[in-house]
Amino acid sequence: MQAVIPAAGRGTRLHPITEDRTKAMCPIAGKPMVARVMDTLAANGADNFILVVSPKDTEIAAYFANDPAVRLVEQSHPLGMGHALLQAAPYIEDDFILSACDSLVNEQAILGMLRMWVSVPPPNAVLALLRVGPADLSRMGVVELDGERVIRIIEKPGPEAAPSDLGSPPLYLFSTKLLDHLQAMRPSQRGEYELQDAIQALIEHEGEVYGHLIPERIDLTRPEDLLRLNLRYLKNGQPQTELVLDEVGKKSRFVSPVLIESDVSIGEGCVIGPNVFIEREARIGHGVQLENCVVLRGAKVGEGTRAKNLVFW
Question: Where are the alpha helices (DSSP H) in 26-182?
Fold first, then answer.
């Protein structure tokens, strides 16, 4: 099955972390965020990926340069998910998964969507649904259901206009019939081409659009989300410590789980961990104590620093 992932956004709310990289390439325990999203989709059968990327993002191009399962399609301006899908449309061959690059859903939730895909009358779409509070209604599409069928979707309504408390996070299964409705999209007040317009046209002209309730999703929007995602993978995975021993000072010790990339220097008398990820080319001074922390590439943690639950950049 093909998977399409828009990955051209800069992630302005993640500044200054995204000054020298896109949101898709922010590290989650040693892998870019977009690669973590791809892993969850691949675990459910996705074997061909279309990434819609900025032509300026040389880092993502280099990372996937030798991956035969990945096609990069350029989007010159990030004008919304609908516009991103338009760029990918010429390369979509059959039913496909569409997912944001900054939103993680567990593998079992995706499996539930796929089971609905083959268990109901032939669908044209299955949308992930998430119960949200009033404050989050204006952050995503909100749907109205008739049983399991979606009969209406509204993009980012206020609480007074929302037809329900069921948000539609950016994870979908689509038939190629959706592509027929992309050209009908018009720029929203935000100047973006909203995918929800095409989904509503699909509902009205083709029908058979369903919703599947998922328990949670974790998105990458702010620095605290980057910390939360890294801690999740550190605690649930089995990270290996990669060190050049000459760059570790005397009496420094590591408390698992810790993941440390290459070309990192660590001073004397440090205590690193538990739950610490240090990206390449970071510098840790003498006497530093870190717990539940992320240290990004090139960051310098000063001598004597004691930190918990922080991101250093």
Answer: 33-42, 58-63, 81-88, 107-119
Query: Helix (H, G, I), strand (E, B), or coil: what is residue 62?
Result: helix
Nearest alpha-carbon partner for 11 in 90, 123, 101, 75: 101
Query: Do 259 and 181 share a structural domain?
Result: no
Structurally, the chain folds into a number of domains equal to 2
Task: Give the residue from 59, 87, 92 showing the smallest Cα distance to 73.
Answer: 87
pLDDT in tens, 96-111: 999 999 999 999 999 9
Supply the CATH number for residue 269's domain. 2.160.10
List the domain range (segments joined by +) for residue 270: 223-312
- How many angstroms separate the CA atoms of 40 and 187, rounded? 31
> 199-238, pLDDT tens digit by residue?
999 999 999 999 999 999 999 999 999 999 999 999 987 6
Encode pLDDT of 140-169 as tens digits: 889 999 999 999 998 888 777 888 999 999
pTM: 0.93
Q: How far is CA 167 from CA 54, 59, 192, in A?
A: 28, 32, 19
β-strand partners of 276:
258, 293
CB-based contacts of 271: which residues, under 8 Å, 6+ apart? 252, 253, 255, 288, 289, 290
- Residue 235: φ, ψ to 5°: -75, -30
Same domain membership, residue 136 and residue 121: yes
Domain match, 74 and 181 both: yes
Q: Exposed (0-12), middle (13-18) or buried (19+): which is 301, by Cβ within 10 Å?
A: buried
Using CA atoms, how far residue 294 sits from 4, 19, 37, 49, 223, in Å, is 29, 17, 20, 29, 10
Last residue of a domain, one of 174, 195, 219: 219
Please state, in angstroms and as integers, the Cα–Cα distance from residue 265 to each residue in 23, 28, 29, 230, 249, following that order: 26, 20, 18, 21, 8
Rounded to whole angstroms, the Cα distance separating 190 from 279 reads 36
